[in-house]
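User: I'm putting together a teaching handout on how multi-component assemblies are represented. Below are the sequence lines for each component of a complex, exactly as they appear in our records. Could you produce the 3D structure of the whole assembly as structure tokens, so the students can see both representations side by side? Please keep the chain order the same as the input.
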Amino acid sequence: MNWKKFFKGTALLFLFNLPAPLFSCGYDYDPSSQYYSFFHSTYWGESPYEGLLYSPVGPLNINYKFEDPNIKDWKNYFGANTTTEDIYQVVYKANRSSLEYIKSQIKKKQDFKLTEEYNSNSIINLWRNKEKLDALDYLIFAKACEEANYKPEYSWYDDEETDDDKNTELQKELLKDGPKLIKSRTSKFFKERYGFQLVRLAHYTDDYNQAVKLFDKYFKESESPSYIQLRALEQKAGALTGLNHPQAPLLFAKVFTALPDRRETCLRSFMFQNLEAVEQGLSENTTLEEKSTYMMLRAFAYRGVEIEELENIVAIHPTFSFLPVLVLRQIAHLEQEALNVNNANIPNLTRSNKVLERLLTVCEKLKKSGEENQRQLYETSIAYLYFLNSDWEAANQASLALKKKYKNNNSQTDILSFLLAICQTKEWSRETEDKFYTQFLENENLKECTALDLFIHDTYSKKFKQSKEYGKAFLAVGYPSRLESNLNPEIVKEVYELYQKPNKTSYEKYLAGKLNLNTLKEYMGSTFMQRNQLDSALWWFNQMERYSLSANYNENEQVNPALFGGAIRHRFETPFNTQCDSLYQQIKLLHKIYTKKDLCEELLHLEKIAMQNPAQAALCYYLLGNAWNNMSPYGYYRGVMYHHSGGWFDSGYYSNQEDEQSAEEFNGFEDLYHYDPQIAAQYFKKALSHQPNAELKARINFMQAKTMLYSYNEFGASIYYWQAPNIDYNNEFGKAYETFEENNQNTTFYQEVLAECGYFRTYLKTSNE
Amino acid sequence: MKTSHFTTPCLLLLFAMLFISCDRQHHVSYYHWKTNGERDSISQNHLDHFKVKQLYTHYFDVKWILSEGQAFPVASLKTDSSFYPNQEIIPTVFIENDVFKHISSQKLPQLTFNIAEKIKRKHIKITGKTSPKELHIDCDWTPSTQKLFFEFLRGLKSETSIEKISCTIRLHQLKYPKKTGVPPVEYGILMCYNMGNLASIKEENSILNLATAKSYFDFNHRYELPLKVALPLFSWAVHFRRDQPIQLINGVRKNDVLQDSNFTHLPNGRFELKKSQSFFNKYLYQGDQLRIEQIEIANLQELLKLVETKVRPKDFDVVFYHLDAKILKHYKPHELEEIL
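Assistant: Of course. Below is the structure of the complete assembly, with chains in the same order as your input.
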């Protein structure tokens, strides 16, 4: 069986089948969107721990960057004058034929011409001078092995024999030549490298026994094996997997701990082992180090349970050097529950409190019997665990003891005592608000903790909400620009008042720093405009130094008068003036509309004509109804009034940090604030009361129905004509259709609607059934 | 004749009953969805019992490989001419919807060609015949990929000159044909499984949940394609840790955990592990929970009744998913026959 393919295939199946990803890559994951991690993983995660720390998206820290040890080995071999780029170019990038060409030219004592990039390579120049030619021979052999091993990862002939057997002859030849070459070399550097190539080649040709034999022949047991020996060991582990040998996962575990660059591959291989057989195969000869490493990997795989493996390891090998990794990972799991950003109170640990107790016991044991240089970590962990368990008294005592013992040498203690002070404060006042924020700003250890920064703002926001200071509550966690998508008049008003407020606290100063007066005035004006209080809106717009349409409205920055037109249906990719009626052309507008101020003036102008000129009243009110309908969330000109950079309204962004009740009470980002369909409906009603002619009346009736449909969809329901016959017409828009149907059948417009409007046709079909 | 007053209606009734009973006889076929084609006696027994003529045989998946910027086959069936020689092998290809999200219409003919050629090569190897009579395509297409998928189906027909092409129909596609479209094929196979939310702790059985199924069958239109109905026979355990889904453990059935004293049966139906141990070659920890999802014959019966409210019984055949001794050993052919 081709195990390489098997692993690849299984890995794919595995990933495909998993409901939640174990491995992930390609984007930066931000755990702060899920929970606060105050216990600095990186603070404790000095090498060699860093890459092993917990990441909420996978078993390993995916952002960990490692140095390529192979490049380092080659650098030692070629000497200090050789750059990493030179090595990369020759060892990884160059192909076999180029290297063979160089060799043949050297043999013929002839110079060779290469492309510009290779000419300046210091290794090539060494070869020109006939130095380090062993490397050239080896690289040619290695490239040949690579070719022999090569099977495209993906191919339309993936499983077909023609490809499988392509490289067999080359493989045989290399397996025959390799041992001779090893024999002829004197340096360990090359002997090991040839050995690695042979073990890998045998493994990839599915000759597992041969791979194991070759490894045992060319690599001797060593206290400090070289990088390439460990790479060969990984190949041996792969071969042993093919032989179903229980030692395989132990070897993968060994390579896993030693080589950061192979961790992901080794863990993946480990996860596909038959652990049942492996555990039966753990013999008395297995060392404590091997057993502990095996248990640690078991904890890493499949989101294992660190606490149980910690207990297992502490029982047999309390000085195991990776125990801190497991402690830190288990703490991160507890933080996920206790410090979840959605928790109403922090910390809040109920489900995993037994795990916490077990971890406390483990840390107490390790404090006594663990490695001396890790004691500070265990002591700090104990204090932090008390905090996670809301055991204030024990946490305070432990925190004080830590401060006394380690003085300024433990930034984690600063964070912990600050958290304890905030969480224990029952009475919240302007003074406490000021005190904590000042303290936060003045202490570098606190300021550097990103989770603490987020926590402070969230905490302050919650406190402000409790005291009904909604403007401040909003600003603590959001930027004013986020208001653009859903202008809540109360919040805008409070935010404006905060800006004007004298004697601000340090935190209020921070909040006010987020504001821009001119923008605030526009928001103030817009809150009035969206409620059709145009005089007040104009007052605010007139206070502004500059004013504009919504930032996301982008139709040449000028509103087309078609805004006042009525359309049976519209498509957003088609200009609206080609889809709507042209009745708006019968009224002369005051000016071109560039800003909301212009628009307010125009809307007032139409209303004035309607009142002064009864003959034009029906038309003017119809145009006004159209304008408000077109500016609704479903209208073509929705961008004029409402900013919606994400394509839709940002109505719930704040509620994810709220429980339902307070979300209703506070967040205020419900639909109510960005669309009142009654404004358009009232204008259509007024239009009808001014004796429009039959055709205009038909249009008004139809637009009324359209407004009602938008309104109905806006408040939770989603009606689409293809849902027929399950649409419930027993509501306002059903009635509006009924009115349109009953009163306008003799008009031309009715026929147009019949031909164009799927919603109306569906209504007719359903109501006639 | 006097007796004719009695005998004629009786005979008519008898004929009618015969017709009705004929109507209810669904022809049976199976999906073969494994990567190895080894035959076994249990599967053969099922095929013989139902006189199965057609085997929908999964040849390979087609997956979009982001790093390569193109689609490739994966998880291919590895077998030879000893593969079920008595059944008509219908090559079946699963194409990830992602393929149609990424591919451009210009590159679609190349993909169609690659798939058609690979099917031909595999088909010769497996059956010795140059061309199959029929092809079956499985793809969970959506409104956004509908256009390209349908274009692909048309292209496949002209590329292979195979007259009969069928494809799978998901329940949502059945319910919302106007949104997702009706594919240009000869018939569809309605997938009556994997209908729930696998990852949700609240789900009871994501493979087959009658309440969920009912919501899918809540429509009044007539689907514009003839349909066969695919019924699930597989089982698995969904492994949860701290209420988070960890992995699927294939083949686990309730008996496997009921017979293991290390599991506690919780009131919510899940099974909790008392002490850490290996189970089905996976390592599970104390406190981990398993939700066993398996299919009972009675549930299949209910499901079929539900299907019959929308598709006339005489109009559809049944395809069981899937031909695997590990699964079929739990279902006797005559038990399955009772539901048909």
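A couple of points students might notice: The longest helix of chain B spans residues 2-23. Residues 32 and 57 of chain B are 5 Å apart (CA to CA).
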